[in-house]
Write a structure and sequence with these properties.
Elements lengths: L2 E5 L2 E4 L4 E8 L7 E7 L6 E6 L6 E3 L7 E6 L4 E6 L8 E8 L15 E2 L3 E6 L1
Parallel strand pairs: 2-11
Antiparallel strand pairs: 1-3, 3-8, 4-5, 4-9, 5-6, 7-8, 9-10, 9-11
Amino acid sequence: QVQLVESGGGLVQAGGSLRLSCAASGRTSSRYATGWFRQAPGKEREFVAGISRSGGRTYYADSVKGRFTISRDNAKNTVYLQMNSLQPEDTAVYYCAAAYSILYSGSYRPDDYDSWGQGTQVTVSS
């Protein structure tokens, strides 16, 4: 089992940037794919971005394509989410999640992920 801890959230003005980090322990990071999800108050958790075990394949929700970039450094057991051109609608708690399946292809379904972090708040002011 892998333990995940997110960091890097905060308050930013519209048009600004943040970089989230997802640090892992307990399982070699190259043995699982990773996704970022977010959940705004009163809304369901939604997929934001995903990355394969090696980092060679990335996946994005349409709402963040061209603005967000997911990457990973397996030597540091860390996955990143660079968020640029942030908008108020990006305000949410952001979670990273690990998917152990070798068939990972950027699933949008939270149930396809096996371990979750506790989340980090991102607030974008207008």
